[in-house]
Write a structure and sequence with these properties.
Radius of gyration: 47 Å
GO molecular function, one term: structural constituent of nuclear pore
Helix content: 40-55%
Keywords: Nucleus, Transport
InterPro entries: Nucleoporin_Nup133/Nup155_N, Nup133-like, WD40/YVTN_repeat-like_dom_sf
Protein name: Nucleoporin Nup133/Nup155-like N-terminal domain-containing protein
Region (Disordered): 1-58
Strand content: 5-15%
Distance between the termini: 111 Å
């Protein structure tokens, strides 16, 4: 493409040079197909490898022989992806016979979104998926004669065609890629446009079986806006299309002309209409040049995810000096409006490219591309310059990157378009070639720009002469990799990017050639095989790149190892001249390489001789045991053994031969891996690894597990293939694609092919069965893409059959690996803290995805055959076992490493309960079905129970092993088997009480207290521990255990419990107790204390009597006043202080009740509530009119007897007698200790610093100055008289 201004070396010299360089050995003659009809018979042996030479041969070379030191020549060569379909090859041969050489006769492109390639040969349009390893499924459409134009030579020119492809339906990238990997046909529209005549053929759905005739739109050459003939005889230079929202197979297409005219084509299954949306105008820029190319250069859609509204789409138009932003509205009618424009080439270099610089003669904006996120716009720029020193002319090619502002607000005026700044310059222009040959405009405007491929940040530039050049700024300089094909291979028609297998980074660059099929450019080919731009000009050193001067200085250590070479395919075989960039990395790489080569040689010697010669010492000295994990050389050798591609495999073989070859190759790998393990043991490397590098040794053993699982998986696929071939079905049903396992293998293999372009020429199944160490990819595919393997459109019976196939595959894979682990258990290192591959998140996620899908099918409303349900049930049972065992393994490893595992435990319990619950529900359906089949006229319950036990026995075992208590309980409950229940309670001892606690909770929720008590006879300690939070039931169990004192305490606490604690695990919680029930518990507590007769039981009985008295007092107080008749006071015990305050607020009768409450409380309570007690005495004094009583006694002259009789009716007298009389009943101590009667008693007891006396309290009363003597007389009389009322009577139990 970018040819420098010097003459190229003669082809003979070039051929000699290439022949001198190492190249892959040619394919054996026996495997070389016959030459194709169009090929030249004396094709040179060098240059681009022939498509039939397997490029994946390099992938089979051991990692030890493919290192940086031995060269990267294989990895910097293009990789042949796919050959043309036979139909295309035949059409090319026929066209070549009818035409003459030297003219581009073919047209073809690659559509990135759909992965479809198309090619026009004569009047036929061929469409196929270029990613298929064998592109046999090719669609042929006839190009209408009205589109071909005049029957002259120019009408056959391949450059006159342009195409737009629409994949109908709103599908995401992952859906599109998954469907493409399975090569499923989705409804696709196709627009074919003749650039010269603007004639359009529109196929609404190219895969429609009925009508394949296109809808034509012939508008005539004379109908166009410019009839003067434009550049290259092409009136349209860019065409883009998009689907109309809500329409059925409807789309619009936007076309631009070099003059600036924009056309809108509305395509529907009925017709194609055209209308002009912008008139072509002669630009005012560059008036010295022709105006015919001053208009539109390139069109590009802004990605839909960036658009603000779903009913609008935006696109950009690149002109000769600016970038225009347009909007299309689909509301009501399709309306196109120009939003704004921004100058790219102008006087401000900060906004774009500065013009009129010395030596600059002209600037062309050639093409543009927008990244998939709509953030960056890349523009290819060519600048015509003149060297002021030598006076020679040259062209400089550069790449300008602009950033789009997504939230830009444009002017709302319809008629006036203001120039808005919606772009920002990301960085100074990156110069691709500072000095290149001067080309004419026809060559310049034939260049096309592509972005998005690997390496990240690289672009590919296509030119009209059929070359493709990848450019990337890497390690401080621009590097070019030119893809050119010699002699008969033809020119490059188009380039694209291999779509990613998931929604992450894109893949490698891929190019479509005229005659050699489709080729991919590996990422390493660009990085290692790329060269600096040719013909650098020392006099214009500063023009290379304005943005990287500082970065160059920082990265000069990297640049020193790069040898400049010409930008051509000569760099393919020059990888051996590359040196590692950093000395430390290089030194480590050499050490690793030498130790790996030593291990390979020692193992090879062992295979030949069966002996080891001081292997352990040699490997220690070589540093073979220095690295852990995947970088360990033992792991790498083991991985290379199990991942080796067989040299005998080829996609041209028959399916039966390929199947047998795969199996034999896997067996060979297994035998070699066993040999490798024997070598490790005999050389004592196994002991070294098992003690110091356990993770590495485990990985080596897991390679054997995966290989064993892969062999069994292949046997399953063979069995399924034979089963289908022996069944009398339609030819379509006999194909492998009828199986879900085949589709799964295709998806996984295709993903590996896309991620490793060296394998692109290999069959998907071959790649899958070769990548043994990456078998987790199969589970990853199931986790994320199961919906594409089993689609919702399929019949439920078909879905069940396919789910059965996939679940069986997962079971066989994991069980074979676990069987290998059991057989070789003595070879494994100590497992403490190690995580096995089957416990990894990707494996668990894949198995869970399949299991959950099976559960959906089994619980769905669609009726299915019971035999199919039974088979699926068996598979679900197996999936449950391996999934729960994987969780247990991971939880054990995390616990041993001391890592947090709470979230994992929750996930494990949730999935365990869901799986076991689904299994048990379906098991009951299977039991009913079997009973219906075998039952006689009369009911046979014994037979049904026998069937039930037989069917549920595996569920019982799994639930017992994984503590699935709900399932265990349901089985025992449905069987009414208390013996089984008691046995499981003894066996299942886990955390939080195990199964016993679960059973107790279930009985408690069902209020089956009698059964709970009977279980307590056998599980005494367990039930006692469980009932610690349930005093209302615990006392019964304690009495059964003859623990009477504990039962008394439990009853006592339960009676006085204000509010029982609620248990979230119990649906049956305690209700509030009434006064009668509380007193009954207290009476029972009194009896239990008496029966226990422990030390101090009399005091316990006294305390219980006091609490009974307080309860009685509360009941009397509540009944006395209707205001207190609330649940708060009638069901819950009230604190004594609160009871006393209630009495203080009421009449004289309740005033004495306050002293009774004090009497039945403890000394500590009275001491801590002296103030409240003093308030009671003040309240008692308030209940009588002491002034009147004193005046009456004085005026009437009462005697002692009259005074005594009068004072006995006062509250002070009765309160004193109740608290201080000789016969007063007070619990625990006396009132004298807290509040003495007389003031002198305080000093006698030494309490003057702590309390007052009753006398001192009453002295504060308002009536004390007038009647104080009489008040104290009442108090002293009450203290001296005996207290003989009902307080001393025994307490009777309520009935």
């Amino acid at each position: 493409m970018f040819s420098p201004a010097v003459r190229k070396p003669h082809l003979l010299h070039r051929r000699d040079k290439e022949e001198a360089s190492p190249s892959p050995p040619p394919a054996p003659a026996a495997h070389t197909p016959s030459p194709r009809g169009f090929a030249v018979h004396d094709r040179p042996a060098t240059g681009t490898p022939a498509p039939w030479t397997s490029s994946s041969l390099l992938a089979r070379i051991s990692t030890s022989t493919r290192t940086d030191r031995t060269g990267d020549s294989g990895q910097i060569q293009p990789v042949h992806v796919a050959e043309f379909p036979p139909k295309v090859r035949n059409a090319q041969a026929n066209l070549l016979k009818k035409s003459f050489s030297g003219r581009r006769l073919l047209a073809g492109r690659i559509d990135k979104e759909t992965s479809l390639a198309w090619m026009i040969c004569g009047n036929e349009l061929f469409i196929w998926s270029y990613l298929a390893s064998v592109a046999e499924d090719c669609l042929v459409l006839e190009v209408p004669s009205s589109l071909m134009g005049n029957k002259d030579a120019k009408s056959l020119c391949g450059s006159q065609w342009t195409v737009c492809v629409m994949r109908w339906g709103s599908i995401g990238a992952s859906t599109r890629n998954s469907g493409g990997m399975l090569h499923r046909r989705s409804s696709t529209g196709f627009i074919l446009c003749n650039k010269r005549t603007q004639a359009i053929a529109y196929w609404p759905d190219i895969y429609a079986k009925s009508n394949k005739s296109p809808v034509l739109g012939s508008f005539g050459y004379d109908d166009t806006s410019s009839g003067d003939g434009t550049f290259g005889n092409c009136m349209i230079n860019s065409l883009i299309a998009v689907a109309v929202p809500g329409g059925v197979n409807e789309c619009i297409a936007i076309a631009s002309e070099p003059t600036g005219t924009l056309w809108l084509f509305q395509c529907s299954p009925a017709a194609v209409h055209r209308r002009e949306i912008q008139k072509g105008t002669l630009g005012v820029y560059d008036a010295d040049h022709s105006h015919k190319n001053s208009g539109g250069r390139s069109l590009a859609w802004l990605p839909s995810k960036v658009s603000s509204e779903a009913s609008e789409r935006m696109f950009f138009l690149l002109t000769s000096h600016e970038l225009q932003c347009w909007s299309i509205s689909f509301l009501h009618d399709i309306n196109c409006k120009k939003l704004g424009s921004q100058e790219i080439v102008g006087n401000d270099g900060d906004l774009g490219i500065k013009k009129d610089i010395a030596g600059q003669k002209n600037i062309w904006l050639l093409d543009m591309q927008i990244d998939e996120y709509g953030k960056e716009i890349s523009i290819l720029v060519a600048t015509f310059c003149k060297d002021r020193v030598s006076g020679s002319n040259y062209t400089q090619y550069s790449l300008l990157t602009m950033l789009y502002k997504p939230n830009q607000k444009f002017s709302s005026e319809d008629n006036v378009t203001k120039t808005e700044r919606f772009l920002e310059k990301k960085a100074p222009s990156q110069v691709i070639i500072p000095k290149a040959r001067v080309e004419d405009e026809e060559f310049l405007f034939s260049m096309r720009l592509k972005t998005g491929g690997k390496p990240s940040g690289s672009v590919i530039i296509l030119s009209g002469d059929g070359t493709a050049t990848v450019a990337i700024y890497w390690r401080g300089s621009t590097r070019l990799y030119q893809f050119d094909l010699p002699w008969d291979a033809g020119k490059v028609l188009d380039a694209s990017v291999i779509p990613s297998s998931d929604d992450r980074d894109e893949g490698s660059w891929v190019v479509l050639t005229e005659k050699a099929g489709v080729w991919a450019i590996p990422e390493k080919a660009v990085l290692v095989g790329g060269v600096e731009p040719p013909e650098r000009s020392l006099s214009r050193k500063g023009s290379c790149n304005e943005a990287v001067a500082e970065e160059k200085r920082r990265n000069q250590a990297f640049n020193a190892s790069v040898v400049p070479r010409r930008a051509s395919s000569e760099a393919w075989s020059a990888g051996e001249r590359q040196r590692p960039a950093l000395a430390g990395i290089a030194q480590q790489a050499v050490v690793d390489e030498e130790s790996e080569m030593l291990l390979n040689r020692l193992f090879h010697d062992f295979v030949l001789s069966g002996t080891v010669h001081e292997a352990l010492q040699k490997l220690r000295a070589a540093g073979a045991f220095d690295k852990e994990g995947e970088m360990n050389i033992f792991v790498r050798i083991s991985k290379s053994i199990v991942n080796t591609l067989s040299k005998h495999w080829t996609t041209t073989r028959e399916a039966e031969f390929l199947a047998s070859t795969i199996v034999s190759s896997l067996i060979e790998k297994q035998q070699k891996h066993e040999k490798f393990l024997q070598f490790l043991v005999l050389s004592k490397c196994h002991e070294e690894l098992s003690s110091k590098q356990r993770a590495a040794m485990l990985t080596v053993m897991e390679h054997g597990e995966k290989l064993s699982g892969m062999i069994q998986l292949r046997e399953l696929q063979n069995a399924l293939s034979h089963q289908r071939s022996s069944t009398k079905l339609s030819p379509q049903s006999k194909d492998h694609s009828a199986g879900a396992l085949w589709n799964l293998i295709q998806l996984v293999g295709e993903k590996a092919r896309r991620n490793t372009v060296l394998l692109m020429d290999r069959d998907n199944a071959e790649v899958f069965y070769s990548r043994v160490s990456d078998i987790e990819d199969l589970l990853h595919c199931l986790s994320h893409q199961l919906q594409y393997i089993i689609t919702g459109e399929e019949h439920p019976s078909v879905q069940m059959q396919r789910a059965l196939e996939l679940s069986n595959a997962c079971l066989i894979l994991v069980q074979a690996a676990l069987c290998y682990r059991e057989e070789h258990k003595d070879w494994y290192p100590s497992p403490e803290g190690l995580t096995t591959w089957n416990s990894q998140p990707v494996v668990r996620s894949g198995i869970w995805r399949v299991a959950s899908f099976v559960m959906e099918l089994l619980t769905g409303p669609v009726a299915a055959d019971m035999s199919m349900k039974s088979n699926l049930w068996s598979q679900l049972e197996g999936l449950t076992d391996i999934l729960l065992d994987a969780y247990i393994g991971l939880l054990t490893a995390k616990f041993e490493r001391g890592e947090e595992h709470g979230v994992l435990v929750q996930e494990y319990c949730h999935r365990r309960d869901e799986l076991l619950g689904s299994l048990y529900d379906l098991a009951k359906q299977i039991v009913d079905a079997k009973y219906q089949e075998s039952a006689e006229v009369t009911d046979n319950l014994d037979l049904k129970e026998s069937i039930f036990r037989e069917v549920t026995s595996p569920i019982l075992a799994t639930a017992k092993r994984h503590e699935g208590y709900q399932t265990l309980w349901q089985i025992c409950y449905d069987l009414s088997d208390t013996g089984l229940l008691r046995s499981l309670m003894h066996d299942s001892v886990g955390p939080h009480g195990g199964f016993s606690f679960f059973v107790f909770k279930q009985l408690l929720n069902r209020r089956q207290y009698a059964k709970l008590s009977r279980l307590g006879e056998e599980f005494q300690e367990e039930l006692a521990t469980f009932l610690k939070g349930r005093d209302d039931l615990l006392w019964l169990h304690e009495i059964y255990l003859n623990q009477f004192s504990s039962a008394s305490e439990t009853l006592h606490n339960c009676a006085l419990l204000v509010s029982p604690e609620e248990d979230a695990n119990l649906t049956s919680n305690r209700k509030q107790l009434s006064f009668v029930e509380r007193k009954r518990f207290l009476y029972l507590s009194k009896i239990a204390a008496a029966a226990g007769k422990d030390a101090g039981y009399e005091g316990k009985i006294t305390r219980i009597d006091a609490d009974i008295r307080i309860l009685n007092l509360q009941e009397e107080i509540v009944q006395h006043d209707p205001e207190y008749a609330q649940d708060k006071y009638t069901t819950k015990p009230v604190r004594p202080s609160e009871l006393i305050e209630m009495c203080l607020k009421r009449d004289r009768e309740l005033s004495l009740k306050a002293f009774e409450v004090f009497a039945w409380t403890s000394t500590s309570f009275r001491s801590s509530n002296r103030g409240l007690l003093e308030a009671c005495w003040m309240n008692a004094a308030d209940q009588d009119d002491w002034v009147s009583l004193s005046q009456e006694s004085t005026s009437e002259g009462w005697g002692d007897k009259v005074i005594q009789e009068s004072l006995q009716g006062t509250v002070l007298f009765n309160a004193s007698r109740l608290c201080y009389s000789p016969d007063a009943v007070v619990y625990e101590g006396t009132f004298e200790e807290v509040l003495p009667v007389k003031k002198e008693d305080v000093y006698l007891r030494g309490l003057e610093s702590r309390c007052l006396s009753v006398e001192e309290v009453l002295m504060q009363h308002k009536d004390f100055p007038d009647a104080g003597k009489l008040m104290m007389t009442a108090v002293i009389m009450g203290k001296e008289l005996p207290y003989t009322i009902t307080a001393a009577e025994p307490i009777e139990m309520d009935s």
